[in-house]
Specification:
By secondary structure, the protein is mainly beta. It has two domains: about 1-95, no CATH class; about 105-210. About 5% of the residues lie in helices and about 30% in strands. A hairpin with a 2-residue loop joins strand 9 (about 85) and strand 10 (about 90-95). The longest helix has 4 residues, at about 185. The N and C termini lie far apart (about 45 Å). Pfam families: LRR_5. This is Leucine rich repeat-containing protein. InterPro entries: LRR_5, LRR_dom_sf.
Length: about 220
């Protein structure tokens, strides 16, 4: 049963018959991170995020929590959850500034990261069907593994506001083209963190001073 406020003596809670592990070690205030392990949630279909565990708020979800899961169907967060919300099937921070995970069963070819997102998380973008990703103006950070393993990706739109593309963010992802809102000089200011592991992005054909599309009709 899904419960907003979980009380447990274990370092995990049960959801959809699977163990979801958590940690209090990452935050000084004792708040909760949900963490990934090899044995955790490979079979979970409905991922429920409690508001609190043992009275402490759940504030973060590690990207590798779904590394071994191929059957995930939906995220569930309560309306009064202060840290997370589900929007059009994807999981976001309450204020919509962070994208944690795109919709699990997304099968389209184009995905628009919603306007207002400033940060894209570990393994947030992950759909085998995807050919085009549009990142909105104002987005600044794509952390490690945020777009890894996207072998079908052909093009990505990156705004001038982008400042940081993390370690292995584009590992095993090699788009043919990048449509960049800024100039070549602006691109030089992006911290690619590890150019070797992000070579698939860096070595693509870059187009500069490109407008960010607002609909599929505007995609080149």
């Amino acid at each position: 049963m899904n419960t907003k406020h979980i009380a447990t003596d274990e370092n995990f809670y049960i959801c959809d018959g699977c163990k979801i592990y958590y940690s209090t070690e990452e935050e000084d205030d004792g708040s909760i991170w949900l963490i990934g392990t090899r044995e955790s949630i490979s079979d979970i279909r409905d991922f429920y995020i409690p508001n609190t565990i043992n009275g402490a708020p759940v504030v973060y979800i590690e990207g590798d929590i779904f590394d071994y899961n191929t059957v995930l169907e939906r995220f569930i967060a309560e309306e009064d959850n202060e840290y997370f919300r589900v929007y059009e099937g994807g999981l976001y921070s309450k204020d919509m500034k962070k994208l944690y995970f795109m919709p699990p069963k997304f099968d389209g070819k184009v995905f628009f990261v919603p306007e207002g997102v400033r940060w894209i998380g570990d393994t947030a973008l992950n759909a085998k069907s995807l050919e085009t990703i549009v990142i909105p103006e104002g987005c600044k950070r794509m952390i490690e593994y945020s777009c890894a393993g996207m072998r079908s990706l052909k093009r990505i739109y990156i705004p001038k506001s982008m400042e940081f593309i993390g370690f292995k963010a584009f590992s095993f992802t090699a788009p043919e083209e990048v449509f960049y809102e800024g100039s070549e000089e602006d691109k030089a200011r992006i911290d690619f963190c590890d150019e070797g592991f992000n070579a698939g992005l860096i070595n693509a054909v870059w187009h500069y001073n490109c407008p960010m599309p607002k609909s599929e009709d505007e995609i080149k």
